[in-house]
């Protein structure tokens, strides 16, 4: 049995997990095939090598065009300076600390185009439109990936939908993914599912999730860390949570949902 041990001692987000799975040997051709088939526009993605603290590691980055970029999650906005422009994506933003992947890989946003793909648009969504769960399901269903990968991607989104529904006291099908349903998160979740499936992992161990402290801003206002959706996922799946003595969001809803969907023990 092939096992995966997720050591989330510096948190977990969608792009962090994708990069770590790629470094473990996930199939890049299958990933390219799936991501280029996503029926949505406005994004590119990049797979590159970066060096952090002298360690060579993979970096996965989803780059949104100006029309689709969600500035509500820029670091400047999150930390109170709404006049500055620092691009980041969904909740998968770059933190002011070093991220480490399952095997001590650090997260890094870099805009060199080593392995970048321009996406051919199939659908036209304005970036202010909100996607409901059924719309997200339709996008994933239309994406070219294995049945097992598709099942995992849908499971991750279903976990997020449940968590968001609880946070907002609405029915799951009434949840509109203005944050976690943004195209960059769909790309991250499809990528996680394809990479995990290609590795053929049967057993996934998540000993704990390490989260920061303080508050972050989102479309609803200032929220405590962990944000409600993340906290709901942590509680539902009984994660051991260790708070780090650092301000900031280390565990994103996408990261927590992916860990929950993958976890077997």
Structure description:
With 265 residues, the chain is α/β, with parallel strands linked by helices. It has one domain (3-262). Helix content is 34%, strand content 18%. It has eight helices and nine strands. The protein has helices spanning 14-23, 28-37, 75-78, 133-141, 147-168, 183-199, 228-236, 253-262, and strands at residues 3-5, 43-52, 55-64, 116-118, 203-205, 209-213, 215-218, 221-224, 241-247. The strands form four sheets. Strands 3-2-4 form a three-stranded antiparallel beta sheet. Strands 1-5 form a two-stranded parallel ribbon. α7 (228-236) packs parallel to α8. Residues 71-128 have low confidence and may be disordered.
* N-to-C order of helices and strands: EHHEEHEHHHEEEEHEH
pLDDT average, as an integer? 80
Percentage of residues assigned to helices: 25-40%
How much is the radius of gyration in Å?
17 Å
When the domains are counted, the total is 1
Strand content: 15-25%
End-to-end Cα distance, whole Å, is 13 Å
**What structural class should be given to the helix and strand makeup?**
alpha/beta
Task: Based on Cα principal axes, name the global outline.
Answer: globular
The largest sheet is: 3 strands, antiparallel
Low-confidence stretches: 71-128
Number of helices: 8
**Largest beta sheet: strand ordering:** 3-2-4
Quaternary assembly: single chain
- Tally of DSSP β-strands: 9
